[in-house]
Amino acid sequence: MTIYIKKLCNAFITDAIVSRRLGGAAVQQVGAIGSLMGGLWVGGTVTVSAHALDWVPNLMNKAVHDNLQPVHIPLAEVRAVRRVFGILTGIVVVELVDGGEFRFRCFNARGVAENMSDLLPSHVMSA
Fold first, then answer.
1. FRET label pair with 13: which of 3, 31, 68, 105, CA 20 to 30 Å apart?
2. What is the residue range of 91's domain?
3. What is this structure's pTM?
4. Is residue 124, in this structure, part of any structural domain at all?
5. Are the CB atoms for 75 and 120 separated by under 8 Å?
6. Within 10 A of 126 (CB to CB), how many other CB atoms are there?
7. CATH number of the domain that 87 lies in?
8. pLDDT tens for residues 6-60?
């Protein structure tokens, strides 16, 4: 399998839960922030092949989150890809045909969104 895109990134994971076994006020605060935001930004690596987008959390995040799972999205399930503003790094929004979305932030987000759009069967990209 040929990988066309591989980037270190932070993915927005809606069900990310910081492990209570770490204890302390910081864990409670991160949990509260996650509740307010509807998820947490979690570090890892995103790869895109001709067939799928995959995100895998880095080792540190695997250690500090409970039941953190990788993400696998077949490109056939992607409706569109766009870049939105983010502080320091842009955010790539992957819109799914079922109405859901997957977001990740990385450097050169505009280029990543454009390159990923070129891999989609319909070659769709929003602004």
1. 3
2. 3-119
3. 0.85
4. no
5. yes
6. 13
7. 2.30.29.30
8. 999 999 999 887 877 666 665 666 666 666 667 899 999 999 999 999 999 999 9
